[in-house]
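hiii so my PI (J.) wants the whole complex modelled not just the main chain, which honestly fair. so below is everything: two entries, each one labled with what it is. i double checked the lines twice but i was tired so who knows lol
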Amino acid sequence: MTAFVAVTLTFFALRLGGGDPAANLMAQNLVSPEHLAAVRAALGLDQPLWVQYSSFLAGLVRGDLGVSLFNRRAVTTVIAEQLVPTLQLASASLLIAILLGLGLGILSAWSNNTLASRGAQLVGGLATGLPVALIGILAILLFSLTPLAALPGGGIQATRGLLLPALVLGFAFAGAIARVVNTELRRSRAEPYMSAAAARGIGRSPRLLWHALRPALPLVISLCALQAAHLFAGTVVIETVFSRPGVGRLLVSSILQGDYPVAQGLVVLAAVIYTLSHMAADLLALVADPRLRSSR
Amino acid sequence: MRRALALLPLLLLGSCSPPAATAGPSLRYGLTLAPTGLDPHLNASSELTIPLGSVYDTLVFQDPETQEFVPGLASRWEISPDGRTYTFYLRQDVEFHDGTPFDANSVKVNLERVLDPENLSQKAASMLGPLESIAVRDPSTVVLQLSQPFAPLLDSLSQVYLGMASPKALAQWGGAEYQFHQVGTGPYRFVEYVPNDHLTLQANPDYDWAPSVYQHDQPYYRQVTFRFFEDPATRALALETGDVDVIGEMPPHDAERLVSSGKYQLQAVPIPGQPLQLFFNTTRSPTSDPSVRRALLLSVDRARLVRTVFGEHSSVAEGLLSAGTPGASPAVPAELFDPAEAASLLDAAGWRRGSDGLRQRDGVRLGITLIVPPWGSNPEAAQLVSAAWSELGAEVDLQVAPGFGPLKEAQAGGEYHVIGVNFFGSDPDLLRPFFSSDGLYNWTGWSDPDLDALLVAAAESTAPRSERLAMYSQVAEEVASQALVLPIRDYTNLVVHRRDLSNLSFSRQGWNPYLIDLRPAP
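here's the output for the full assembly
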């Protein structure tokens, strides 16, 4: 349902706001009016909007997203080619975001005023506040042009290929996770079961890492799932800054150039990913927290 | 789900595998746009000509210095006195990269592919003008028959969009997939194109038919890899981090910084065509009044504008065609800046300043709607223009159209006084759609039968080149006398490369480099 609404909105928004796709297609060329009319007809753009819409829906039902206006290739092929690098980036970033977010969150909740917790809060704040593009450019400057470039093995190319973009995107998303972890840990520190655990002689670290963290996990997991959906937006920026292939860049260029079928296909994909990641979050939360299971 | 998770490490590893190594020196070239389609017969971007200019040879080449046409795959040609029949005598020693011999039939297959309406050619088809038929007289002679004379034809045939592709490969791959398997006769062969990621060329060791525009017979660099840097902010970084050796479309301030570091060299490459210019809508008040148009033109300090927005390396546009484009003439000199004269023109036309500083006539304000495209630095330039006009007492409504489609839409709606755009092209016939009464791009709304006749006569001219080009000077004079346009900046591509690279030169169209001539600096 969500996917259907998103796709319908995109269909009309693109057509009503983006200008004439035939003119876009011929943008860099001085064509004759006859040629333009022929192109419009060949692409079915001379049909009434509702005819275009119903044939688009009919195709969608069959799993046929149409062909790109610009290179006549199947939209599914065009998207599939760009999906792999985006999945690599998104999954690596998510992994980094979770590890870094948990680490920073735990560190900042560890104690109230140590240098470490202050530092973790500052880093978390930077991660939440700075635009991804800026972090990306700073990271390139830092890791490619300074002596730091020599640090990670494998050289600039390998590092910049996936590790650096994933670090940047993961860093940007770690901020929100860290904040949630921090808040939840602080809250559960005050809970009676923590005192009970202390009374049983359980040490400070296991107390914090196991007893306090566990009830926070469902929230963290559903946040991660939300982040996974948002990662899609983050990859747009990262792919551009790091000149990486991927669906994010494809989305931007297809909208700018007016390649409607490709843009629509990407929205379908985004809607599906969004729905799936929310379902996954609910499932994982059930696994992580038995209380949720019993309450159903 | 579990299977998907199991695939994850594989996906992660996949990106780390290095590209296949090749023997011999290699070069990395930065492109600035990842084209949606890369088939020169079908797609239109200027960016695709940068790699593909070296994959394809054309029937003729144009000498960037003399602007003369010289033999390419055609060793000579004849044009009938009525300008409608072109006979090309072809080289017989040429082979495509896949071993297919090049002959007259190849020319026929290529041009018919371009003209086939099914293929939706975005650019190449209209470059052929009134081409009616292609006849093979014998394996080394091909005859093009036109319905009308069309002077720009040789210029068209000298461009990559009409490069000669292997008929065998065209048949094998078809419309959509050929772009990933391109086969030409040029000094480099196409190896692979991974959309949005990279495109690789390899030197063609069999290349033995270099046209006279090339300085060398064989490439030095065995492999050239192209990558795409769309965000302007990342281009200087790409050079500095060693990701590329050469990159174009460098923002002016980055270019200056790189050059002053002493490690890089800058080439400011003028791109022929129409400069960025503002078209005055003559069908709407107040820009329907020539003295208002002239006042608006005179009030903008174009020299300062260009220096501020585009830096030291771009020049002020002085005509309908960028300097260096055949037929260009400085009809609107850069020094044309006289705010006092502009003010008195408006006073004389009855537009008086009110107490708020804005001009009005009969209770109507001097309102100007200015629409510009978003690319390049058009919005910044338009802001300075709009400031100058506000100074003059106009109420300016500046709108940035988000792309070419919306720009065209805004133009079609007619709700504008001034609209800006620039176009590339190396033949002055490019003016026809802009200044003919029924032209698709007649954005000034100007209609003058004499001007129409002049534009058609120039396009169909069979007279010597100099006479034809003189006609375009006449067009420019006419348009300037009516103050129909405000030219702003001649397009300049700022290409920066490492100092250890030399001999970078470009074709007549300005975009595509002669990769065959690149050498390490001595």
